[in-house]
Amino acid sequence: MATEVQAAPQPEPVATAPEVNDKTSQTMTSAEVPSAETLHKVGEYTVLDRKGEKHTFKSILEGPAATDRVLVIFIRHFFCGTVPPDDIKKLPGTSVVVIGCGDPSLIDFYAAETKCPFAFYADPTQKLYDDLGMTRTMALGPRAEYSQEGMVGNAIKSMVRAIRNAPFSSLLKSGDVKQVGGEFLFEPNGEGGKKVSWCYRMENTRNHAPLETLKAVLDPEGQILKRA
User: Fold this and answer.
1) Domain ranges of the chain
2) Could you tell me which residues belong to the region Disordered (predicted)?
3) Could you tell me which residues are beta bridge partners of residue 99?
4) Burial class of residue 127, CB neighbours in 10 A (0-12, 13-18, 19+)
5) What are phi and psi of 110, to 5 degrees?
6) CA separation for the pair 177, 77 (Å, rounded)
7) Complete edge-to-edge strand list for the sheet that includes strand 194-201
8) Which among 5, 25, 27, 76 could bridge 80 via Cys, Cβ 3.0 to 4.6 Å?
9) Contact between 120 and 75 (Cβ < 8 Å)
């Protein structure tokens, strides 16, 4: 009688964790506003101005010169050509702050090349990016709506020319190329401070908030920021 040969048992598949970026545990959904606890924490973080002088994040939002509404735009790095449309400065009681993750010594260069009229600061530690839920990626995604024409399109062309001519040492100071940013609108919280009333976190290197979305959030009636 033939002996029945049993197949050797197959090992059970080992579950593996999905591949994630190194900050996924702190990454939030694109539109999830930070908690009051988080805002209290990050308010004490420092950013650097163009002279390298320190300022608390809270002082930028709530200091004597602060407006009621502050749109904070976190760019990827100081060779990123995406900047907000300058019509925003026409909105009453509204100001714009641009924060990059590179060396503050590049702020003047960036502002000059983009001809961006807003206030600039640097967060080279990336602590604000991290704790406000922004992530790191090199995924391209589709081209952003307001990076194609007008002032912003010209800014990107200027940045491309500047990168070609920039010394290598400047390229090393521009910031983490994997870091992506987002937009955060701070408004009064009714208790003397500020809250985030709306935000948009980038999911790839190109998708800042669409221009029409920014217009609708900042000027719902379309009185100043004309719709397309």
Assistant:
1) 26-218
2) 1-35
3) 74, 121
4) middle
5) -65, -45
6) 7
7) 54-56, 46-48, 119-122, 94-100, 69-74, 182-188, 194-201
8) 76
9) no
Helix axes 107-114, 150-165, angle to 10 degrees: 130
**What is the token pair recorded at 8?**
């050797």
Q: What is the 3-state secondary structure (H, E, C) of the chain?
A: CCCCCCCCCCCCCCCCCCCCCCCHHHCCCCCCCCCHHHHHHHCCCEEECCCCCEEEHHHHHHCCCCCCEEEEEECCCCCCCCCCCHHHHHCCCEEEEEEECCCHHHHHHHHHHHCCCCEEEECCCCHHHHHCCCCECCCCCCCCHHHCCHHHHHHHHHHHHHHHHCCHHHHHHCCCCCECCEEEEEEECCCCCEEEEEEEECCCCCCCCCHHHHHHHHCCCCCCCCCC
The label of the residue with tokens 């800042």 reads 208
How far from 79 is each of 12, 53, 83, 161, 195, CA to CA, in Å? 49, 21, 11, 10, 30
Structure tokens at 108: 């003047």
Query: Over the stretch 15-70, which tens digit does the pLDDT of each residue have?
Result: 333 333 444 334 566 889 999 999 999 999 999 999 999 999 999 999 999 999 99
Architecture of domain 26-218: 3-Layer(aba) Sandwich (3.40)
Residues 6 or more apart in contact with residue 91 via CB below 8 angstroms = 69, 218, 219, 224, 225
Is 148:206 a contact under the CB 8 Å cutoff?
no
